[in-house]
Structures are given as C-alpha cells and as structure tokens.
From TrEMBL:
SUPFAM superfamilies, sorted: Chelatase (SSF53800)
Source superkingdom: Bacteria
Keywords: Lyase, Metal-binding
The protein's name in its UniProt record: Cobalamin biosynthesis protein CbiX
Segment forming the signal sequence: none
Biological classification of the source: Bacteria, Bacillati, Actinomycetota, Actinomycetes, Kitasatosporales
Listed GO MF terms: lyase activity; metal ion binding
Length: 235
C-alpha cells in the first residue's frame, strides 16, 4: 500500500503521515509506504519505483485527501502518470468521491475535540480551503454532520482560497449566542495551513484548537476500507 499525501515543508507534517503509515501497517500486516504530491519526498514515482524494485507487483495507492478537489482531479493523476512497473490501483479519496460525510471522519474529529479537555458550546470546522465549489460544499456537509454528532452549532471555515475564515466563522457563532467556541482541525497533519488556522483562531479567542487527524484509529480503519474497496473493484 502507498499512502499519497499532499505534502508539506513542515517536518512534523511529514512525520505525521509516516506515523499514520506505521499504524496502518501494524493493523494491516503488509508493507505500507508514503509519498507526497508536493513539498516533500519521496514522490509517488520514486516510491512506486522502490516498491517495484522490491518485487511488489500490485500496489494500491490510497490518496490522503479529504475532498475530490483540484489535488484529486489534477495533481493525483499527474503524479501517477507513466509509473515505473505495473500501474497501481488507485483508491477513492478518504473524504469520499461524492462528498457524503463518512462516519469515521466524524468520529475522528470528535476524538480530537475531546482531547482538548475543555467545555465548548459551538464548533468551527477548519479546512484548508479550495476554489472548487464542490470541495467547499463537502466541508460544509462535514461541519453539519459533526454538529449533529455533537448536538452543537458547527460552521465550516477555511484557511485559504475561500470564505469564511476561521475568525469570521467564530464571529458568526458569537453573534448567534455562542460563548465558548472550539475549532476542529479538518486536516491530516500540522502543516502551514494548520498553523494559519491556529493563529487565526487564537486571535479570535477560541477555547481551543484540536490537533490534526493524524493517526486516529478511525482514520486507520478508513484507510484500510479504501484499500479493500480498490482491490475489490479491480476483481
């Protein structure tokens, strides 16, 4: 299995992806490698080449992407173009191809919020952001699902590319009567946009910002399901 992440210049973000790979490998029992679309190595081509040289004839690529936006539609196919060895099997993105919220992502977000160990009466779901309207809609759908799970108001916000920003979403919730607002980080690793979210949320006076999804058990389970879905679809 090859976990293909967006990538980040931040070493801690790269290590977070590798920690997820180790957790998946421990659960699955077979080799799991990582590669990155941007900003870090190895590239998908390099990782696939190494796996081919090691004698792995069939590789399933699981994209660590939360929406089927630009990176899934453009960067992913480009990264896998003309691979060394046999063409890999590509699994659906973790957020799902239709944008329907997956219960395990909701559970992982709740887990990370619980780890804050603070009381809150509303939540901002902070994602990276995209100019792709469908991607923004899928984040909004996840915010709605998380709010339903928590029984609290929950608004989507974005660190870049579109609105509202985390600060704007916090202000909207305050106008609606919320006083203790927490931010749920809808990302895999603590890269640049996570830092932007933390800075904006802290400036807005939130009670806490959850850690990225990282190697949450629910995420491990979802990765394994996407892997199996891809293999089953090939048969």
């Amino acid at each position: 299995m090859l976990l293909l992440a967006h990538g980040s210049l931040a070493p801690e973000a790269q290590e977070s992806t590798r920690a997820l790979a180790r957790a998946v490998e421990a659960s699955h029992g077979s080799r799991v490698e990582v590669a990155f679309l941007r900003h870090a190595g190895p590239t998908a081509r390099e990782a696939l080449g190494a796996l081919a040289e090691a004698g792995h004839e069939e590789v399933v690529v699981v994209p660590l992407l939360l929406t089927a936006a630009f990176h899934a539609r453009v960067d992913l196919p480009k990264a896998l173009l003309d691979p060394p060895g046999k063409a890999p099997i590509v699994a659906p993105v973790l957020g799902g191809p239709t944008g329907v919220p997956d219960g395990r992502l909701v559970a992982a977000l709740r887990r990370r919020l619980t780890e804050l160990d603070v009381e809150f009466d509303a939540v901002v779901l902070a994602a990276a952001g995209s100019v792709d309207a469908a991607a923004s809609s899928s984040v909004a759908a996840m915010a709605s699902a998380l709010g339903t799970e928590l029984g609290l108001p929950c608004r989507a916000a974005f660190a870049s590319a579109t609105e509202p920003t985390p600060g704007e979403a916090v202000a909207e919730l305050r106008r609606a009567g919320a006083r203790r607002i927490a931010v749920a980080s809808y990302c895999f690793a603590a890269g640049l946009l996570f830092r932007v979210t933390v800075e904006a949320a802290t400036a807005a006076g939130v009670v806490g910002v959850s850690q990225p999804l990282g190697d949450a058990p629910e995420l491990v389970e979802l990765v394994l399901e996407r892997f199996q879905q891809a293999r089953d679809a090939k048969v």
